[in-house]
Specification:
Elements lengths: L23 H18 L5 H17 L14 H4 L5
Helix pairs in contact: 1-2
Length: 86
């Protein structure tokens, strides 16, 4: 049985092929999620911050994580990453 992909979720695989723990885009998304969950657990919740973090997560979901890959330090072409032989 083939595994279905939920397209509504934020992608958990780096398009460049870097591990999830090292990808800056995935790391930023996880930090947003962690901050939002921690803020929601508090007794006196600041609704403005919650709304701001929720909108940031929605924006990342709409844009996708591949938007940040162009500025990623791990995104190198094969020719640039290949060692130079003399």
């Amino acid at each position: 049985m083939a595994k279905k992909i939920n397209k509504k979720k934020i992608v958990g695989v780096c398009p460049v092929g870097i591990q999830k723990t090292r990808c800056p885009s995935i790391k930023m998304t996880r930090q947003l999620r962690i901050r939002l969950l921690a803020l929601q657990r508090e007794n006196n919740v600041n609704t403005d911050q919650v709304v701001q973090l929720q909108s940031a997560l929605k924006g990342r979901k709409i844009r996708g994580i591949a938007v940040d890959c162009e500025t990623c330090k791990y995104n190198t072409t094969a020719s640039a990453a290949a060692p130079v032989s003399q």
